Amino acid sequence: MSRRGKKKGRPVSGWLILDKPVGMGSTDAVAKIKWLFQAEKAGHAGTLDPLASGMLPIALGEATKTVPYVMDGAKVYRFTVAWGEERSTDDLEGPVTKTSDKRPSEAEISGATAEIHRRHHADAAAILRD
Fold it and tell me: How many angstroms separate the CA atoms of 46 and 44, rounded?
């Protein structure tokens, strides 16, 4: 007799915030949590690169229906910049393709971060208007 229609796992519902370590992908993290709780269903609200560590919100069961609301929330990113290298993949995994002794001034960095903030607020305002 077929097991079609029978769900695997327990009907566990709720949110869990995982402090994801470097080296683990978001999909791997969700799979591990789903296995650990023997949950029927699990998903994540956002993706953290395997090279990134940080808080990964994981929804279980009925909570997966609220993932879109969490995705719309504000996020904060902290990062470290290493000046003077260009890599083929724009992250630490790719080989260095160019090097430079040039370093941006404090004013150039402030201008770039101000532009990022301006674009973010303009995008948010456009979304609110729609």
Answer: 6
Q: Is residue 58 within 8 Å of 18, Cβ to Cβ? A: yes
Using alpha carbons only, what angle is made at residue 92 by residues 101 and 94, rounded to the nearest 5 degrees? 95
Residues 6+ apart with CB under 8 A from 23: 50
Most confident of 15-29, 39-53, 64-78: 15-29
Backbone angles phi, psi at 58, to 5 degrees: -120, 125
> Which amino acids are annotated catalytic?
49
Burial (Cβ within 10 Å: 0-12, 13-18, ≥19) of residue 45? buried
